[in-house]
Amino acid sequence: MVDLSVDLGFLKLKNPVLTASGTFGYGVEFAPFVDLNKLGGFVVKGLYFNPRAGNPPPRLVETASGLINAIGLQGIGVKRFSEEILPQLRGFDTALIVNVCGENDEEYAAVVEYLDKQEGIAAYELNISCPNTKREGRCPALSPDTTHAVVRLVKETSSRPVITKLSPNVTDIVEIALSAQEAGSDGLALANTFLAMAIDTDTQAPKLANVFGGLSGPAIKPLTLRMVYQVAQRVHIPIVGIGGITTGNDALEYMIAGASAIEVGTANFVDPESTEKIILDLEIYCRNKGIEKIERVIGSFKE
Amino acid sequence: MHKEPKTLIVHKKIWGEYCLLGLQTEKIAHLAQPGQFIMVRTNQGFQPLLRRPISIHSAQDGILEIYFQQTGTGTRLLSQKNEGEYLDIIGPLGKGFRLISSSERECAALIGGGRGIAPLYFLARKLRDLGVSLRIYYGGKTIEDIPLRQKFEEENFDILLSTDDGSFGSKGTITDLFLSSLREFSPSRIFACGPEAMMAKIAQIAREKDIYAEFSLEAFMGCGFGACWGCVRKIRTGEKEDWLKICEEGPVFAGERIIWQEEEEF
Lengths: 303, 266
Prior knowledge:
heterodimer; A: TIM Barrel; 8 helices; B: 2 domains; six-stranded antiparallel beta barrel; 36% strand
């Protein structure tokens, strides 16, 4: 019997497989496909304080082994989420992580303050890295100072653990990661989508109404894997690896590079059962390798 | 909603760019309603990455038919599948047409342009079973775009055909044909699916003549079941206008709720 559980220090997960925010709706959408109880946890769609309209369509464009999205965090806001969705999710025996958004630092804090009064949430994922809500992908995660400020404010407000989700659209992600750690972040999620675009050559117009969007899917896996590896060398808080994971082998690469857990994103659209299959893959890998505890895989990279 | 990773293709027909596949799927065929769709994985690799939303063309005796046009990589790969091969599908998805019963003494016009005819065959059979009188209007750019004409004729549906170039049926658009026939045929309901401009024109006619109309919209989709919010369109609900998910709230909407692209430009 393989022990797939991982201890993030602030949160114990039954296995390292989580879902990436924005690709798993509010969780309930996947109940017909996946036994949510089997997941290590799931991260629900980003929440602002108030409902949000999102960007005009087209919001999606497919590229080589990838998907560019510019949804713009359309969503129902914290109140409706707490009243309508949260009661449906509390019954599941898995870690519920809420992705928290804000137009400014105060809104992040307000969302956390509101959610802190609700039961059934294991942790917050601080989304300071969405590339689709401001012009040209601006977000707090692009600089160490703005990262530090928002993480510190949220940590002062929150009674729950905070995982800060970083942007890959930076010169040196290690610097940002260290800044989030310094500000008290309990963990790091690496990374959000890559700022990207696509052009329709017939009309010479952008394929997304927002012009820019965030690239996800198998195309980005080697890029974020490199970032997870680099950051893992320098921080002491746990890392959640995200980016193009579609198989157990992809998940293992991230774990060997230093991730304590992983999130499955775009693969949920391609195969909504991906998460369960990945958990099974991890178990088979451990069994074949004679590994009793999957935690032994974390950071097991051999140069 | 079911995920059927190994759905057998039991028959196939191809006419130029258009393709019809029959799929053996007891569960999905049993649940399917006219206007609903399935998400199909067109290959097992990552190119293309996403599933494709394909309209349900018919569902009977455990066989689900899909009819589509090759418009890109995904539909081209799908049209290359053969009888005896398997497809990974999810369905039935979305909200279909609101069915009417004969007791309401209604008369329906089903208007399809090109591949937009796909869900209307299923609807036509369903309405006929319900005893509703109906007429089908089926048009395309040329004779190549209306390959299903014989299928409707063989089943004795009242059908009018048009092609833009006059290569078959009336010369002109299906909208022109519909409009000119209104003197002798006045439907109480319209169900339409086709290019945006065609549907916008029909919506305008329906509004002017005060006929209730429903339209099946097309969209590129990420997931097909409401999780990604990628396929939205501005839809009216009362006074309110919101970006609604076509996959979940649609793909069929009542005409008065749809904000047509021409309207938006003003």
